[in-house]
Amino acid sequence: MEFSQLKELDDKYILNSYKRYPLQVVSGKGVYVFDENGNKYLDFLGGIAVNALGYSHPKVIKAIKDQLEKLIHISNLFYTETPVILAHKLCEISSMDKVFFCNSGAEANELAIKLARLNSNSYSKDKTSLVCLNNSFHGRTIGSLTVTKNSSYAEKFLPLTGEAVFININNVEELVNTVNDKTACIIIEPIQGEGGINLASKDFLQQARCLADKYNALLIFDEVQAGLGRTGDYFSYQFSAVEPDIITIAKPLGAGLPIGAVLMKEKIAKMISYGDHGSTFGANCVTTASALAFLEVIEQDNLLENVKSVGNYLFNQLENLRSSYSFIKEVRGRGLILGIELEIPVGDIHLSLMKRGLITNSTSERVIRLLPPYVITKNNVDEAISIIDGVFSEVKS
Ligand code: PLP
Fold first, then answer.
1. What are the backbone angles phi and psi of residue 67, rounded to the nearest 5°?
2. 338 CA to middle of ligand 1, Å?
């Protein structure tokens, strides 16, 4: 289909909730996507942190095809193998005890909030306060919006549900003054993705753990964007040695298929009885088979090491650019979740980068976000840096 016709039909029939890039993507291979004219683009956005193995990974395709031919869906009313093996693996890499599978990050956070309610209701009916962070993002459902702090996501949809209290990331004093015996949970992205690539400090995470213990509140880490290998560890909190009660994951887990999960400690799992929660499509045979392939490739191809070494290389190359362009305020992040904060609004820089063959986007007004796949090489980084350099040199002049 011609791009102009596609755009017209899209405008006519698809809900206008996303501002699209003026690009029709028809295929992907490795770290590149291709438009209808065969032009290739190095993808440092990866379906918004989803395509961590790049595109068309042969082991993912094989796992999906094999499962498609056996059984696509049967429901959670029956025993099937792939969700069980996947849950076992997820518990091994996270030190959690039990898993619930859903279909997205927002859904995973919904259950996390329900579990916090379940826990706090066993202490007192007025233990309802949800302690959350400014600049957080946890999804677009009413529950996940309640703990998300960005007025533009929520303000048209008020009222939300529950009592959320927002504090600043890494402000330990505020944390200490806010958490009390009315607190049901503290929910934290150890690296805030949508909020501008802001890193929680070890001290802040440790204090959150101590306070959650002191007041019988749950500590929830939302690892939907930064988790599952993106930082070079399986989880972005692991640098801190803090153990949460609940971890939520999604984005890269299904290697492109929709699956989310809530990982939890046994003491929380024990509170759930039959019928307390559910999802028709959760633990689907194909999405869990794809997720198993994703974890296997990470392990077999030693991708955590690649994320660390190529991530450091990318970070250093961006730091070098900073010395040439005074409008670069800061480069931050860990592994392959990096942000370039500018002194000026990002505006259409992502479109200029795309015209030269590099796909990125911005989070918050001034941060260009880079989320390349775990399989990138230093050569791919050099290619990206030369494109960024070219675009920045035009911004400068
Ligand atoms: N949590 C975090 C940290 C996210 O970055 C996102 C999505 O960007 C979500 C939750 C929501 O995930 P989903 O879009 O799969 O519902």
1. -70, -40
2. 17
